[in-house]
C-alpha cells in the first residue's frame, strides 16, 4: 500500500534528522488540489525538533526527495506546515491492477491482528417485541464485526439476550392467570400472544397495584430455584423456558432474513440468565473491594466525586438487576477470552449513562484498561409515515417494516421491468433498510422515510445496488478487442476514480478503528457517484484498444470494491435489477 510505503520513508527521514517520531499520520485530503496524501508530521513534531513547522517540513522534504519516491509526481508544502504528495498516474494505475488481482482481499489488512474483540449486538428481549432499536443494533453491530474481522481481529459475535429480570415474574403471572401456554405454542404468532399478556399485566396492575407484589414473588421463586432444580419453582421454570424457545423462533426468522449470525454459545449468544449462577461471586468481589454501599435497603456503587449517579446492584428485595448481570457477563468474558479482550456493546444511545456507570464500576474493580470497554450507541428511529408510528403506540413490529420494504422493492423492480424473483426483492429490500440505517453516523436519529429508503437516485440502497449492477452489465457486454499497447491519457473522471480506489484499504481500517461503518458508507457512495459520472461522460463499450482495456479495468475494480464494501456492511448485491 502506498500509504505505508510513504510512512516508512517519512519515518526514516525524521530519524536522520534525529527527531523521535513515533507514528506518522497520513491522511487523504478531501480536495484534490491538496494532493493525494498529506502528512502533518512537521506540525506535530516541530516542537521536539525545535524548529518552526515550515522550516522543518522543508528539511524533511530535502531528505525524502533523495529516497526513491518514484510513485510521487510532486510534493508541496502548504501553510502552516502540511506536506502534500501528488501520486503519479503510473502508481495509480498500479493500484488499479492491485485491486483487480487481489479482488476482495484488497480491503483486508492486519491492523487489528492479535486483538480479540467481543462484539455484542442485537440483544433483544424474550417475550417482548424485536424492536427497531434491536434492528439498528443488529445491523450496525454486524457491520462493525465484519470490519474488525477483515482488519485481522479475532471477533466473537455475541448476543446478550434479555431473558432474566423481574419482568419474567409479570409474564409468568399473566400466563398462569390469563393465558394458555398450549394455545400460545400452537399459534403462528406466539410472541405476539406473549407480548399481549405482558401488556395486559401492566393494564391490570394499574388498577390493582397488588399484582406487582405477586409478580415479584413469581420472579423470586424462579430465581431462587433456577440452579437448584427445586420442585417448588418447576412451573415457573417451565413457563420461562417455553417463552425463551417461542421467542427464539421469531428471532431466528429475523436473523436468517438479515443474514446475521452469532458465534458464541452455539449461535445464541450468552444471554442474561447464563450469568445467574455467577452473581454471588460478583457481589462478593464488590464487597471485598469495598465498592458496595447500603442505601434504603438496596446496595449501590457510589462513584468518586459523584461523577455519575450511583449504580444499583441489588434491589431492596434482594434480587439482581441488569447491571449485576452485565458485571457477571464481563467478568466471564475476561476469564473466557483473556484479560486483554476488547468488549464492544452496540446498544441504543439511551443507555449511554448506564454504560458509563458500568465501565466506571469495572474500572474501579480493576478489570479493564483504557480502550478495552466500548459502547457504540445509536439514536432512535422515527417514522415519517405516521401510519407506522401511531398504529401500535411505541411498539413497531419489525416484520411490518420488512414487509413494507418488500412491497416497495417489488414496485421498483416492476418499474424497471426486470427480475421479480423473490430472493432479489428481499435482497433489495433488506439492503435498502441496512444502507439507510448505516448511512448517517449512528448517534443520530434516523427519520425513516420510505421515499428516501427506496429511492433509485441519491444516497440509497437501490442507488448503490444499481451502480454495482451497472458495472456487471457493462462487463457482460464488452467484446474482447485486440489490445493495443501504448500509453493513453487519463481523463479527469478516470483519475478521480483511481484516486478513490487506492484509498479503499485505508477507509476500511479507519472505519474499523472508529467502530463506524458510516465511514465506509460515505466512501462507497462517493465512489459510486464518481463511477456514474464517468459513465455519463464517457463511453466504455464504444472505446477501443488500450482505452477500452483501461475502462474495463476501472469498471471491474469499481465492481469489486462496491461488492466487497457492501458485503462488509452486511449488504448482498444482485446481478440484475
Ligand atoms: N436487552 C437490552 C435491551 O433491549 C439490551 C442489552 C444490551 N447489552 C448489555 N450488555 N446490556 O435494551
Write the layout of secondary structure elements.
Blueprint: H1 2-17, E1 26-27, E2 37-39, H2 41-49, H3 53-66, E3 72-78, E4 82-87, H4 89-102, E5 116-120, H5 132-150, E6 154-158, H6 167-178, H7 181-186, H8 190-207, H9 210-225, H10 234-258, H11 279-288, E7 292-295, E8 298-301, E9 311-314, H12 322-337, E10 342-346, H13 352-364, E11 373-376, E12 381-383, H14 386-391, H15 398-416, H16 422-438, E13 446-448, H17 450-453, H18 461-477, H19 492-501, H20 504-513, H21 517-537, H22 545-568
Parallel strand pairs: 5-6, 5-10, 10-11, 12-13
Antiparallel strand pairs: 1-2, 2-4, 3-4, 7-8, 8-9
Helix pairs in contact: 1-3, 2-3, 4-19, 4-22, 5-20, 6-8, 6-9, 9-10, 11-12, 15-16, 18-21, 18-22, 19-21, 19-22, 20-21, 21-22
The structure holds arginine.
Amino acid at each position: 500500500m502506498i500509504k505505508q510505503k510513504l510512512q516508512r520513508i517519512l519515518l526514516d527521514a525524521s530519524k536522520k534528522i534525529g527527531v523521535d517520531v513515533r507514528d506518522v499520520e497520513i491522511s487523504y485530503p478531501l480536495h484534490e488540489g491538496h494532493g493525494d496524501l498529506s502528512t502533518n508530521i512537521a506540525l506535530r513534531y516541530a516542537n521536539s525538533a525545535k524548529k518552526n513547522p515550515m522550516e522543518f517540513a522543508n528539511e524533511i522534504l530535502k531528505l525524502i526527495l533523495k529516497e526513491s519516491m518514484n510513485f510521487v509526481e510532486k510534493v508541496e508544502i502548504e501553510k502552516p506546515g502540511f506536506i502534500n504528495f501528488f501520486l503519479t498516474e503510473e502508481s495509480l494505475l498500479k493500484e488499479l491492477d492491485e485491486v483487480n488481482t487481489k479482488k476482495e482481499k484488497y480491503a483486508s489488512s492486519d491492523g487489528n491482528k492479535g486483538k480479540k474483540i467481543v462484539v455484542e449486538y442485537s440483544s433483544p428481549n424474550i417475550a417482548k417485541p424485536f424492536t427497531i432499536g434491536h434492528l439498528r443494533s443488529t445491523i450496525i453491530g454486524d457491520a462493525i464485526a465484519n470490519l474488525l474481522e477483515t482488519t485481522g481481529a479475532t471477533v466473537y459475535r455475541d448476543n446478550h439476550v434479555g431473558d432474566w429480570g423481574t419482568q419474567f415474574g409479570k409474564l409468568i403471572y399473566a400466563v398462569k392467570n390469563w393465558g394458555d401456554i398450549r394455545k400460545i405454542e400452537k399459534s403462528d404468532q406466539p410472541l405476539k400472544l406473549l407480548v399481549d399478556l405482558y401488556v395486559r399485566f401492566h393494564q391490570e396492575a394499574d388498577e390493582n397495584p397488588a399484582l406487582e407484589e405477586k409478580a415479584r414473588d413469581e420472579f423470586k421463586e424462579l430465581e431462587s430455584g433456577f440452579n437448584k432444580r427445586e420442585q417448588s419453582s418447576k412451573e415457573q421454570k417451565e413457563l420461562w423456558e417455553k417463552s425463551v424457545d417461542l421467542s427464539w423462533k421469531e428471532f431466528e426468522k429475523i436473523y436468517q432474513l438479515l443474514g446475521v449470525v452469532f458465534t458464541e454459545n452455539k449461535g445464541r449468544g450468552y444471554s442474561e440468565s447464563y450469568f445467574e449462577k455467577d452473581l454471588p461471586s460478583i457481589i462478593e468481589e464488590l464487597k471485598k473491594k469495598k465498592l458496595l454501599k447500603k442505601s434504603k435497603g438496596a446496595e449501590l456503587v457510589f462513584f468518586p466525586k459523584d461523577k455519575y449517579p450511583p449504580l444499583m446492584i441489588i434491589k431492596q428485595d434482594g434480587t439482581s438487576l441488569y447491571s449485576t448481570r452485565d458485571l457477571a457477563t464481563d467478568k466471564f468474558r475476561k476469564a473466557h477470552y483473556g484479560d486483554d479482550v476488547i468488549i464492544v456493546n452496540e446498544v441504543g444511545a439511551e443507555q449511554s449513562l448506564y454504560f458509563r456507570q458500568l465501565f466506571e464500576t469495572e474500572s474501579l474493580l480493576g478489570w479493564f484498561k483504557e480502550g478495552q470497554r466500548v459502547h457504540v450507541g445509536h439514536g432512535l428511529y422515527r417514522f415519517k409515515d405516521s401510519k407506522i408510528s401511531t398504529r401500535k403506540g411505541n411498539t413497531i413490529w419489525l416484520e411490518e417494516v420488512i414487509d413494507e420494504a418488500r412491497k416497495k422493492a417489488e414496485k421498483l423492480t416492476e418499474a424497471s421491468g426486470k427480475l421479480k424473483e423473490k430472493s432479489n426483492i428481499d435482497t433489495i429490500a433488506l439492503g435498502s433498510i441496512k444502507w439507510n440505517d448505516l448511512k448517517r453516523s449512528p448517534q443520530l436519529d434516523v427519520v425513516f422515510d420510505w421515499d428516501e429508503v427506496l429511492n433509485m437516485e441519491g444516497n440509497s440502497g437501490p442507488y448503490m445496488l444499481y451502480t454495482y449492477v451497472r458495472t456487471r452489465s457493462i462487463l457482460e457486454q464488452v467484446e474482447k478487442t485486440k489490445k493495443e499497447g501504448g500509453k493513453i491519457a487519463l481523463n479527469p473522471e478516470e483519475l478521480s476514480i483511481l484516486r478513490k480506489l487506492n484509498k479503499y484499504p485505508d477507509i476500511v481500517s479507519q472505519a474499523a478503528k472508529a467502530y463506524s461503518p458510516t465511514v465506509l458508507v460515505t466512501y462507497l457512495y462517493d465512489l459510486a457517484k464518481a463511477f456514474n459520472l464517468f459513465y455519463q461522460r464517457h463511453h466504455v463499450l464504444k472505446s477501443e484498444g488500450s482505452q477500452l482495456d483501461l475502462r474495463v479495468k476501472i469498471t471491474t475494480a469499481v465492481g469489486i470494491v462496491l461488492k466487497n464494501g457492501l458485503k462488509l456492511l452486511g449488504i448482498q448485491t444482485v446481478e440484475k435489477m
